[in-house]
Specification:
Domain Ice-binding protein C-terminal: 208-228
Number of strands: 18
Radius of gyration: 26 Å
Pfam families: PEP-CTERM (PF07589)
Distance between the termini: 57 Å
Helix content: 10-25%
Keywords: Signal
Number of domains: 2
Largest sheet: 7 strands, antiparallel
Protein name: PEP-CTERM sorting domain-containing protein
Shape: elongated
Order of helices and strands: EEEEEEEEEEEEEEEEEEH
Signal peptide: 1-20
Strand content: over 45%
Length: 238
């Protein structure tokens, strides 16, 4: 039975006083959102890897501005953003796309602050991705530091199959903290979460679609039968 979904699902949560929400998308995936997240769903019948099936695509991204910025002049602040996806109920994840992300932090005169992130993907017991960002440090003097990191895009495509699927766990986590600025010190921190897109399907409902070569062989067989039948009719008429 096809699971019918609404066209969109949206959550707006405070990026400063972060909350969390666990959503079961009609028994297909468990979607754990925190921070200012928005999830959009679409559904379509597709043909891939010689199978026809209904695919549900989910996109999760920051709701509103692309970057969460914490300014010490208005501090202290703490913000986090997290997305965790797990396929459940016998459903399979067929496609995962993670965009680029970034973290930035500037601290002056031992100002208190931090920014960090992690992007990971596990398939069954195997870790396919564990990325903390490629860090770059710059120093102005002994009292000043600038740090930023970049998360590269990532993609994963599982071959469509009617077999029992492996569990896919995708996790994106970002956080930042800044203290309150004063006359002697100042700082800011920010993070730009990656956009996550993934697709889910039911392996129990996939329908095999013959390859073009199979269609060609079938056509030759039908043509051969037609010629044989026509030859027999001509012989009978004679």
């Amino acid at each position: 039975m096809m699971k019918q979904l609404g066209c969109a699902l949206a959550l707006g949560l405070s990026p400063v006083l972060a909350q969390a929400a666990v959503i079961d998308l009609l028994g297909m995936v468990s979607l754990d959102l925190s921070g200012n997240s928005k999830a959009t769903l679409t559904q379509a019948e597709v043909v891939r890897d010689n199978y026809r099936f209904v695919e549900t695509t989910v996109q999760v991204k920051l709701n509103g501005a692309e970057t969460v910025l914490l300014d010490g002049r208005n501090g202290p602040f703490y913000a986090d953003y997290g997305v965790t996806v797990r396929n459940i109920g016998g459903y399979a994840v067929s496609n995962i796309q993670i965009g680029s992300g970034a973290i930035d932090i500037y601290l002056n005169h031992y100002f208190g602050g931090d920014a960090r992130g992690e992007v990971s993907h596990r398939q069954g017991s195997q870790t396919l991705l564990l990325d903390h960002g490629s860090r770059v440090h710059e120093w102005g003097d002994i009292y000043e530091s600038i740090v930023w990191g970049v998360f590269d895009p990532y993609s994963f495509a599982a071959r469509i199959s009617p077999l029992t699927p492996l569990q896919q766990v995708v996790n994106l986590q970002y956080s930042a903290f800044v203290d309150e600025a004063d006359s002697s010190s100042y700082g800011w921190a920010s993070f730009r979460p990656a956009t996550l897109t993934f697709s889910v399907y039911d392996p129990r409902s996939v329908v095999p679609v013959p390859e073009p070569a199979a269609y060609a062989l079938m056509g030759l067989g039908l043509l051969s039968l037609w010629r044989r039948g026509r030859g027999q009719r001509v012989a009978d008429a004679a």
